[in-house]
Design brief:
two-stranded parallel ribbon; 3-stranded mixed beta sheet; single chain; globular; mainly beta; 7 strands
Length: 91
């Protein structure tokens, strides 16, 4: 995952237990594989702005924008991209 200089990602927690993530913005590029969201234990996710998630030859993992509080196990939602690139812009 490539992150721009003006982007922030804050993660507090470990591999198990409770995790809190706050995304101010993110540019995720994966040309030949997957964009994955992995949920372990209980998680509270707040996405303020997630932009430009592209995957040219693989699957796109949907991050679930607009979900302010997600507690429990999350699921990876994957769709097949047709064409050269699939972009997502959300405010």
């Amino acid at each position: 995952m490539n992150m721009g200089q003006d982007r922030q990602m804050q993660m507090i927690g470990g591999n198990g237990g409770n995790q809190f993530r706050q995304y101010a913005g993110q540019n995720a590029w994966n040309l030949n594989g997957y964009n994955e969201v992995q949920n372990v234990g209980n998680q509270v996710a707040q996405n303020l702005r997630v932009q430009n998630i592209r995957n040219q030859n693989g699957l796109i993992g949907v991050l679930g924008n607009g979900i302010q509080n997600q507690i429990g196990n999350g699921n990876l939602v994957a769709v097949r991209a047709e064409g050269n690139a699939a972009g997502q812009n959300a405010n």
